[in-house]
Write a structure and sequence with these properties.
- The structure is a homodimer.
- By secondary structure, chain A is α/β, with parallel strands linked by helices.
- Helix content of chain A is 34%, strand content 18%.
- The first copy, chain A, has two domains: 173 residues, Acetylglutamate kinase-like (Carbamate kinase, 3-Layer(aba) Sandwich), CATH 3.40.1160; 97 residues, no CATH class.
- In chain A, strand 4 and strand 5 form a beta hairpin.
- In chain A, helix 3 runs parallel beside helix 11, helix 5 runs antiparallel to helix 6 and helix 8 packs parallel to helix 10.
- The two termini of chain A are 40 Å apart.
- At the A-B interface, helix 4, helix 5, helix 6, strand 3 and helix 7 of A face helix 4, helix 5, helix 6, strand 3 and helix 7 of B.
- Chains A, B: InterPro entries: AceGlu_kinase-like_sf, Asp/Glu/Uridylate_kinase, Fosfomycin_R_FomA-type.
- Chains A, B: Belongs to the isopentenyl phosphate kinase family.
- Chains A, B: Its EC number is 2.7.4.26.
Chain lengths: 336, 336
Amino acid sequence: MAEEAAQEQPSPTAPRPVRCIVKLGGAAITNKGELESINEESLRSACAQLRQAMSESDGDGAPGKVLGMDWSRRHGDPADPAVDAERIAGMAGLGFDTNFIVVHGAGSFGHFQASRSGVHKGGLHSTLVKAGFVATRISVTSLNQEIVRALAREGIPSVGMSPFACGWSTKQRKLASADASQIIQSLHAGFVPVLHGDAVLDELLDCTILSGDVIIRHLSQLLSPKYVVFLTDVHGVYDRPPTDPNAVLLREIEVDDNGSWSIVKPALLQGNNKGVAAHDTTGGMETKILEAAVIARLGIDVYITKAGTEHSQRALKGDVSTDSEDWLGTIIRSSK
Amino acid sequence: MAEEAAQEQPSPTAPRPVRCIVKLGGAAITNKGELESINEESLRSACAQLRQAMSESDGDGAPGKVLGMDWSRRHGDPADPAVDAERIAGMAGLGFDTNFIVVHGAGSFGHFQASRSGVHKGGLHSTLVKAGFVATRISVTSLNQEIVRALAREGIPSVGMSPFACGWSTKQRKLASADASQIIQSLHAGFVPVLHGDAVLDELLDCTILSGDVIIRHLSQLLSPKYVVFLTDVHGVYDRPPTDPNAVLLREIEVDDNGSWSIVKPALLQGNNKGVAAHDTTGGMETKILEAAVIARLGIDVYITKAGTEHSQRALKGDVSTDSEDWLGTIIRSSK
């Protein structure tokens, strides 16, 4: 009996396996056209779906009252937050599998400051780059703060962790130092780390921008999540810009051991994978596939889908397979 | 010539000596009676004085136009920030000695969330403590964000660094892990790290609160600043609560090698150092002296004074000596 109990209790030193790393795409959670503007409805919906995915029940039971963990005042709200400490103290637990990591993009935060100053090019001797570094961090960390708060309002025990403050740095734009021990400690303590693309120090260039996608790739290599979900503002990866009426959604992409990828579904596009890059004038999708391919090669399924839909809800639960005809999105997986 | 030039350029590995660690006391920068309310005027004034202290000139020359580094929108401000990138790019440099570290208290941020949940007592198995941990961090990091922005608006290249995200942790409330390498890297790159009292993980208790004063003590031991300044809402340390009309400001306190301290000025209180603790019903001042005494024993002068006064301006510049009859505040120094 004692042994059984010991087995059920995870050892304090062995990290629990991470279930899912979620990318909240900048395009999905901010209004791209407007400087530093959050898409409140999309963010709220993504957080609610994440909570649902974490819930141990399949969502058939009546959802309990959400235990909000943002006890701060909101801007313009004159009332102090109400906290029913007695009720919360009496709760048996969260009833969640909180073993998720959230990474978000910048969207309409940070880009203005970074592009005006050229932070990604480095050179901190330049006053403009130094000021831009500070301004970029202020902008992306203020978005991080709002996302942590939105998650906390949905009862998700989220903790903001800025890569710069965590000591993450690059060398010639490639990740050089990226200690994840505090992320692992936080997961182990039952918190959901929330990271973001950030301005970081670079050994050769002085500084640069570290993207959320690179963070996800690194954490996937390190922590082997069961699956990775990219939430964006379109249904997945298309063979050309999704605004093109002839654009075709790529349903399934297979990645070989050597990293080359091919379109499995729809069948008509098979053998035509060069077509994506040629059509992709927005420049984002080829990069997205290549980043996702690195993760898929590790044997981790990657789901790219539209935030705030039934498809994102299923992806966050890991309830997607290559046989799911009614699931709208792109699966990127290993050919093995 | 080459050798001279090499000597002028600090080596990339050797950290520059830190000039000053500044504590922005919670009482000085927030409105204590009102939940999560910043004392904007006091904060602005503290940031302006800090900038003045960093300036290489003695402030005799006309101050240049401030290079604001907060390019984010402010709440309720409909206009996009104006950034004159060309002018900034043409600037020769900041003309600052940025080798400062800022640590701030919580004031009316964080205390409500921490005390309602008992985060300092630990026990993350309790839903209340877990929620309170998240809520406390949201509150203190939102204050940190506002302080970083206020410093950046004054042209100080500030970067927020949360102790929790930096991986700082405690064991039975005593600092157990507190790697300062990212703080040193940031200083070396010309940034001003801005830390704060935070909720952190504790090896034995699960979690607790790490105070700003403990952070300052640790950083002083590690980085040997020339002097340490505590900015607060009263003129310094008194022999009894400063609201008492008979309260006497302690002008100079001497700390022995063994850590015991004695009042040097005013002379009438000499030999009466037990009196402070007896009178100090607020409980804060005895702790403050003890924390400061640890720093003073290292041979580092500690100045405790009122924010937003000519006395704080002089303290931030390090322009205070035990002969300064016209300086209002408390000097805590080693007897050696």
